[in-house]
Amino acid sequence: MSPEAMDLLKKLKSSTTDDVRDVERFFIPELDIVNNYGMPYDNLILSCSYGPDACTDIVTLYSPTYGKCYMFNYIGIFNDKDTPVKIAKQPGRTHGLQLYLQVRKEDTLPLLTRDLGVRIVVHDPRSIPIAAENGIDIRPGDMASISMEYLEMNRLGQPWGTCAEDGQVLANNYSGNPYIQSECESFCINQEVFKRCHCWHPRYLSAVVTPKRKAICATNSTSAVDRCFLSVVHDTDNGTVECNCPPACREIGYQLTTSASQLNQDFFRIVKKAKTLTTKGGKASVTNSDFE
After folding, report:
1. Does residue 237 come out as left (phi exceeding 0), alpha (psi in the -120 to 50 range) or beta?
2. What string of DSSP letters covers 21-82?
3. What's the pLDDT tens digit per position in 55-91?
4. 3-class DSSP state for residue 276?
5. Element (H, E) at 270
6. pTM score, whole prediction
7. What angle do CA 119, 120, 121 make, to 5 degrees?
């Protein structure tokens, strides 16, 4: 075996869980790898429409754990174009967002992929989605429908209770706009990692639209940095590291209901053949007629 293969085997054998979740931090890809090898938009999304119109202004999101993700109807807080949020004018799925996605097993890396399928997140257009907490999984070969209900919670601050406003700078130096409690907690833990280990750990880094170079912790099981990181995790679990992250004063969420039926692949093959049919020299040809 090569030294790299031996190192990989050693890390897998050191795991104490059946799904090696406790050592997955060693396999988080670096930013350059995500950028160069993440699934391109055209390979993942075959068709995207919102009501009668094709999707526009797709924004690429770089996630340490999910690689390249793609956002529709994302405006952020500060946008140069002053882009308004797109709003469906009529009810029903034909007037909402429709996606046809292509997910193939041969495009995945087995050691980085527990699930085959895609992760869908419905989120506030102002905020970056948190896929690990708020997403739902869609299985390959399914035609899934998602209905949703908009929820808004407003909490009272002092003197009735404690909550954080959008953009408020907290004692741990976190300020989010919009403020998200779980993002505050991740920032707080990573800030402690940086204080002790002099680097930022990818496990607690947020997904970003514009990647920035940071001092990323070396994910190596034999390094002092990894032992330092584990000490922060241990202290966080036993309450030694405290994060001042109250609930948000204004919190937006979506209650999702999902149903699924089996996708009729013959329908899409017939449509693709019809739309790409050309005749040259008396011979008919179609584009990728058997492409799944």
Report:
1. alpha
2. GGGGGGGPPPHHHHHHHSPPHHHHEEEEEETTEE----EEEEETTTEEEEESS---SS-TT-
3. 988 999 998 888 899 999 998 876 555 678 888 888 8
4. helix
5. helix 265-276
6. 0.84
7. 125
